[in-house]
Amino acid sequence: MRVALFITCVNDTLFPGTGKAVVSLLRRLGCDVDFPAAQTCCGQMHVNTGYREEGVRLARHFTEVFAGYDAVVAPSGSCAAMVREQYPRLARPGSRGAAAIAEVVPKVYELSEFLIDVLKVEDVGAYFPHRVTYHPTCHSLRSLRLGDRPTRLLQHVRGLELVPLPGAEECCGFGGTFAVKNPAVSAAMGADKTRSILDTGAEVLCAADNSCLMHIGGTLSRQQTGVRTMHLAEILASTEGAR
User: Fold this and answer.
1) What number of other Cβ atoms are within 10 A of residue 241's Cβ?
2) Distance from chain centroid for Cα 93
3) What share of the chain is helix, strand, coil (3-state, %, to 5)?
4) Angstrom distance (rounded) from CA 13 to CA 9
5) Which of 7-11, 105-109, 113-117, 188-192 is predicted with the least confidence, judged by mean pLDDT?
6) What is the dihedral sign for C-alpha 170, 25, 36, 119?
7) What pLDDT, on the 0 to 100 scale, is given for residue 72?
8) Alpha helix locations (H) across the chain?
């Protein structure tokens, strides 16, 4: 299977280790993974703030870059949701762009979706001997409806103790530009999420979006809690020899 990694802006700029973990994991599972260097932003922040035409341009570019692959895998529920939900709405019906979107969009998957729904695997051979709690980010929960896919993968990681997160479905307060426009509300929501995480006694907070982990992790760090944040891909890529 020829798979393209859609790295996303946040990961490319701030969390390159997540992209490397995805490549390592998928290659371990037998996928031929490519990284199209011409990829850019998916356009989510442009469309969400009213720059629709810029979003159309970026959607067109996305379909050109990722055409021809069997699957496109993103370590981000947020960006995968943008492509799957918003791209069809941006295209003019009957246009060449609409046809390209109809061809590419069904092949775009968030990582846990791809592992469970396409590769049909739950045990990826990972080893991570730590107490972990999982935060289902808003886009992965409400847009992609990932359900228990991420936790099913974590439950099969050897050595990992998965503990439930109280109020797991509550937003962490990041919300992209929401955190910039409403900093006080965002910080209060982040504080609520942090208290729930600390109640679990977990060593590590895991999620499928580094943007949300960055927001929560800032509060955890400022409070000197000692709780680490890790992307799902990095835990799944971990092996006994590396830990």
Assistant:
1) 6
2) 29
3) 55, 15, 35
4) 6
5) 188-192
6) negative
7) 98
8) 9-14, 16-28, 44-48, 52-65, 77-81, 87-90, 96-104, 111-113, 138, 149-155, 177-181, 183-200, 210-222, 232-237
